[in-house]
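Hey all, quick one. A colleague (J.T.) asked me to put the adenosine-5'-triphosphate job into the tracker so the inputs and the structure tokens live in one place instead of scattered across chat threads. No bug as far as I know, just bookkeeping. Sequence used:
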Amino acid sequence: MNSKEISVLDLKNITRSYTHGRGKSRIEHTVLHNLNMQIRAGEIFCLVGPNGAGKTTTVKIAGTLLAPDSGSVGVAGVDAVKDPRKAREHMALLLGGENGFYRNVSAYDNLQYFADLAGVPYVGREKSIQDALESVNLADKAQQRVQTFSRGMWQRLHIARALINHAQLVLLDEPTMGLDPESARHVRSLIQGMQAEGTAILMTTHEMSEVERLADTVAVIREGRIIARGTVDELATSQNIHHMSVYSCSSGNLGGLCGVDGAEDYDSDSLYALDGVQWYEAVKTHGLWTVTIAWSGFSASSAQASAEKTLSDYGLQLLGRREPSLEEVYLSILHNGVSNGVSR
Ligand SMILES: Nc1ncnc2c1ncn2[C@@H]1O[C@H](COP(=O)(O)OP(=O)(O)OP(=O)(O)O)[C@@H](O)[C@H]1O
């Protein structure tokens, strides 16, 4: 078997609940339901989903910080539930935020400590720490205490730690959150560098442009269940969006679709009644509405003309048509589910 085919991370039938309250008011809330996920060497797997969907919980379970209630976690062939310590030798975990290092200690000494923990051989250790610090542009900050680091520097130091122990699996929870565009770009290029070395990467993000750039596989999680999975192209195809069209409307009440002059108050049923409308979004800025409609195709060739005529009667002027972005595909998945069941 080709080494790229072997799963470095193998989550099988993972279920996890949290409990709230005590005694009679104790409530159990299941946040992951029979979750399955396999990630191969050299694969970037992006987990996306709304707030509270279960992304961080998944990363924590993969990273052995949380145990699943049921199911199995395999990391580089190690049973991570039975032997979390051994599994951790194969992985690096970046949970975001400023934790995971000794704040009062220099970047260099932190890396030396973690290299020691990871069993990096003494001979050559100094060089590999220096090399890792150079690759993440922190060589000149090596002797600085980590508590003085900015968020971007913390993120890069976490990646340096992953580089030193040549982790087979890297888990990244929102690795570019809060970073300026240049730092985010740098972190993305470091992620791609690790991928090129054959590292399996699980990352969560809310940045769809990041997913478009990095992901080999995308999974959309909602309420603890993976509802779609595939390449970016497969997900786009699964939504069967024929095209997107964008309209403007200067009428304050959206051509009468709004009862009151307010963005929250438009009558969604009228637009959904039109043949071919899969979903739409209406946004009002400086008194001007912009309406974006995802069309799923039309039942008859005359239907498009009829729908456009109705929109024009509402005062909506067509600005143009285009392909859907990944963000729109994602919104479509959350709205409709998956029409042709993309998964692998
Ligand atoms: N320690 C905890 N105790 C109780 N409930 C928790 C705990 N951690 C998470 N949850 C709940 O589990 C669910 C999933 O949370 P999780 O942090 O995994 O979501 P997420 O997809 O990472 O969200 P976000 O995009 O906001 O980071 C949420 O309903 C959350 O409130």
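Adding what we noticed when we looked at it: Residues 18, 31, 49, 51-57 surround adenosine-5'-triphosphate (CB under 6 Å). The chain is about 30% helix and 30% strand.
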